[in-house]
Amino acid sequence: MEDAGAYSLLDHLGEHGDASATAVAAGALATMHAPIARPAPPDLLPLADGFVSLFAQARAAADPLIVEGAEVASALLADQRDLRPLHGDFHHENLLLSDRGWLAIDGKGLIGDPGYDVANLFYNPLHRDDLRLDPDRIRAMAAALAPAVGREPETVLRWAFAHACLSASWHLEDGNLENAARSLRVAHAVRSVLREYG
């Protein structure tokens, strides 16, 4: 098993700033999602399977924002393109600097639209609400990350919004109302920028 190292993108952010960390993430995503000749493994889980919790919470009408998130997720899942293996949990602590460059760890074995792999970055770092809720940062991330997965910034933001609502639904299932509320604050911040697209 390869040693991916101990220096994470979170460490890089602390030393070089958020814009530099986002640029590193974009480069890693572009490499991960570059076309490959061989077919995808047959046992990957469809991306839609990962949204079961969000749809269940929406049916329970847990929160209007979750209902809206489920509607956005449903539309995105129905319009997936360029299906390929996804990391499924791509964020600052799952990208490590090794001897041969940045490596993503702890993939979730999904297959679906590459736009989804950007979503979790908006939700991270978990302890940095000053970044996660900053509309300027959200805009800048969408612009920097969208080309890496071949999507428009608006589409990337829609995946980010849906993912934040999904995260809230997981916390609601666990009875963790405080973390659910934190997730929904991220969803609200992303949605406020998304609304600029009309």
Brief digest:
The protein has 198 residues and is mainly alpha-helical. The protein has one domain: Aminoglycoside phosphotransferase (APH), C-terminal lobe (Aminoglycoside 3'-phosphotransferase, Chain: A, domain 2). It has helices spanning 9-16, 18-32, 52-59, 64-78, 116-122, 129-132, 135-145, 153-173, 177-194, and strands spanning 7-8, 45-46, 84-86, 95-98, 101-104, 110-112.
Task: Give keywords.
mainly alpha; 198 residues; single chain; three-stranded antiparallel sheet; three-stranded mixed sheet; Aminoglycoside 3'-phosphotransferase, Chain: A, domain 2; 54% helix
Biggest beta sheet attributes = 3 strands, antiparallel
What is the CATH third-level topology name?
Aminoglycoside 3'-phosphotransferase, Chain: A, domain 2
Class based on secondary structure composition and strand pairing = mainly alpha
Give the CATH class.
Alpha Beta
How many H/I helices?
9
Low-confidence stretches: none
What is the topology, as strand order, of the major beta sheet? 1-4-5
Order of helices and strands: EHHEHHEEEEHHHHH
Mean pLDDT, rounded to whole units? 94
Shape: globular
Tell me what the structure shows.
The protein is mainly α. The chain has one domain: Aminoglycoside 3'-phosphotransferase, Chain: A, domain 2, CATH 3.90.1200. The protein has 9 helices and 6 strands. The protein has helices at residues 9-16, 18-32, 52-59, 64-78, 116-122, 129-132, 135-145, 153-173, 177-194, and strands at 7-8, 45-46, 84-86, 95-98, 101-104, 110-112. A 3-stranded antiparallel β-sheet has the order 1-4-5. The longest helix is centred in the C-terminal third of the chain and has 21 residues, at 153-173. The termini are far apart.
